[in-house]
Each structure stands twice: as C-alpha cells, then as structure tokens.
Amino acid sequence: MISKLGYLSWEIWKSRNCAIFWNSNIEPMATITKARISETKFVEANKIDEQKQPFTNKRNSIENRNLYRRRVTWRPPIGDRLKANVDGAFRKESGKGAIAVVIRDNEGKVVAGSAEIVRATSSLSVESMALRSALILAKNLQLKNILFESDSLPLIQAVKVKETIGEIDPILRDIYVLMEGISNSGFTWTHRESNQLAHQVASLAINGRLNRNWTWDQPVEIRGIARREARITYKQAMTEQQHFQHNFQALQIVRR
C-alpha cells in the first residue's frame, strides 16, 4: 500500500511539473498507468530479494512464507492489454503431461483458454509446450497487445533473449516464429502463487476432471480462483483511483 501511494505521488508530482513548466495537460489515467508500472517493477524486484533472504528458524520461515503468499496474487494487465497465463503438469513415471492456457482482460475476466494432454520428457518441456499453445491460441484468435506469463523462470529467460535449450529446442524454435506474428506481445515470469488459475486448469486436465467447455462452464475450483482474483483486481483498482483523486485534489489546492 505504501509503495502504491509513493509511486502515485511521484507521478502526480511529475505531471504537475510538466503542467507548470511545459504547459502540458494533466492526464489522470496516464498518470495512474505510469505509477502502476513503476510500482509493479518495484514489487517484483523485492519478491526476488525476499526469496534470497535466509530465515533464522523454522517458525520464522513458516510465518514469513505464509505472509508472503497472502501478498502475492495475479496482477491484471494494464489498460486494454490481455494477459495469457500458462502452466503445465507433468508425471515423470508415465511421461504424461497437461498444458493449460488462460487469457484474461484487465478486469480478470476469462476471455479464452485451452487445455490439452501431451506426452513429455520433463517439466520444462511441458511448460514450453504450454507457452507455445498460448501463442497458437492468440494467433488463431487474432489477438494482439498480449502479455504471456509463466512461472517457469528458465523458459522465460530463454524466450526473452531467444536462447536455445537442448531438450526443448524444437519447441523454442516454434515459439520464436510464432512471436513474430503477434504484435505488441511480451513475456514475463511470475511466482507460482500468482499463477494459480492456469495451474488449477492443468491439474484438473491431467486428472481427467476438466470438461471441454471449461472456459464458459467453469468447474467450481476454477470459478472460485477466477472470482477471487477478479475481486482483488477490482479492489486494487478502486484503491488506486481513490488515492489518485485524493492526491489530485490536494495538488489542485496547492496550485491555488
């Protein structure tokens, strides 16, 4: 909450300076968007630092982990952008895997998705198949301005710089070709805790408990996660709007 207020105040101050010194118009939504982007980068950087910090004892470890999990949740895309979360489930003993794609808008509504049973050799291969499936789905639906999100750090690191990884090289080559056909796309890593919906879809699929029409006839498990995360998204948006209005009113008073 403090970081949201801090970055919002910073962007309001910059907008005020632009208005005073360069005669530019103050655009509230643009200011909010810039603040959200800066705050997101700050939060993500701190998540990585928290993971690296050792805990002094078992009790502190559990308490800190539970607190951390309560804070981490799915974050909506900014503006009119879409976000495609991908995940995979893998059973090493049988080589059976399941891949899941969930595409949502900035209100947390599921607009499209897919799930499929696959044969795989590792968790990484399943994760890469899921990302490829998301790109294929986006291309088939002619979607643009979309952010692809996965909790597989090695995969996202490779995709961002177009590296090759031996065991999944053919899949990566497909991904790199598909990327070129989707304008204004991006790729980002997220924690497992904020990738719960795609994870749940993959879990239900590999256990044979997912119906073919799950995107609109959602099972209880999926509907519960989707509604909870959409509710959090709405609350965050309302809080940010209230903070902006409060700070904007304060700014107007100062200018008078």
UniProtKB/TrEMBL annotation:
An example Gene Ontology molecular-function term: RNA-DNA hybrid ribonuclease activity
SUPFAM superfamilies in alphabetical order: Ribonuclease H-like (SSF53098)
Domain RNase H type-1 intervals: 85-204
Pfam families: RVT_3
Protein name: RNase H type-1 domain-containing protein
Organism of origin: Arachis hypogaea (Peanut)
